[in-house]
Specification:
269 residues; mainly alpha; three-stranded antiparallel sheet; 11 helices; 4% strand
């Protein structure tokens, strides 16, 4: 009975995530949900100030977390090693950890406390990130992804440099210090970790949970679009570097979303 429910659950999500209106609905829910400010947001024309103040508060929180980055980098490496070494043995636990990771990243990147607005929540990002967390928790229940790695044609490994770059995340302007491999903020950066998790799923393809693959890559596309759009409001030097940092996420997200939609599973069980 439980197995039948899991099969039905997967078949439903498999069909749902193939519909264009599913993604439109996800975007609409995220966009129409108003941002939250415990001290009040005020008129709509104050939204720009709210976002700016919240982003500044998020940067302060990010800077405060820097001493913990070597530990968090090590934690990410341990997780990846566990997936590669014997991921199937702990696949439900791994899916739960990834879901919790997205919740933690949502906290670091959408929730802050600013002097003017108090507790501030950028709801658009929060909803999208929690959607990814939800599908990973659901994957822990259905256990669809096979975390056993197999030898692939050499051309399939093109995603690894993108994942390594995301893990490195040299986010100080035009500074490519190798030390960023243990000190950057990639473990709490959804842009970077989405790239890494998509790279892993591409190496496991097609023995993966396709709804998870599609939702995560679609959110990656939206993230890339917003971040790359932001580059055009910076000066040329900063904007070009911002593009450089986030183009890998756009590439792998577009590739993954298209790949996930094109593939037809013969047996959803």
């Amino acid at each position: 009975m439980i197995k039948e429910r899991r099969i039905l659950s997967y078949e439903t999500m498999e069909q749902l995530t193939r519909r264009w209106w599913f993604y439109l609905l996800l975007v609409l829910v995220a966009v129409i949900t108003p941002p939250f400010a415990s001290k009040g947001l005020g008129p709509i024309n104050e939204l720009g100030n709210f976002v700016w103040d919240t982003v500044q508060a998020l940067l302060i929180k990010k800077i405060a977390s820097l001493p913990f980055m070597p530990i968090l980098h090590l934690a990410v490496l341990i997780l990846i090693f566990s997936i590669v070494r014997n991921g199937n043995r702990f696949r439900r636990g791994i899916s739960i950890i990834i879901g919790l990771h997205f919740i933690a990243m949502a906290y670091f990147q959408t929730i802050a406390v600013s002097e003017k607005y108090g507790l501030s929540i950028i709801s658009v990002g929060l909803i999208l990130f929690l959607a990814v967390a939800f599908v990973w928790f659901w994957e822990a229940s259905v256990g669809k992804t096979d975390f056993t790695f197999h030898k692939l044609p050499l051309r399939n490994y093109w995603v690894l440099p993108l994942a390594l770059f995301a893990f490195w995340d040299p986010d100080i302007l035009w500074d490519f210090d190798p030390l960023f491999l243990i000190t950057s903020t990639s473990p709490i950066a959804i842009c970077m970790m989405t790239t890494i998790y998509l790279a892993i799923m591409n190496l496991l393809f097609p023995r993966i949970n396709f709804p998870v693959f599609r939702v995560m890559s679609f959110v990656g596309i939206l993230l890339a679009a917003f971040t790359l759009l932001g580059a055009f409001f910076m000066d040329a030097r900063e904007g070009s570097y911002w593009l450089f940092l986030h183009i890998p996420m756009l590439i792998i997200s577009l590739y993954s979303f298209r790949r996930g939609l094109r593939f037809i599973e013969s047996d959803p069980a």
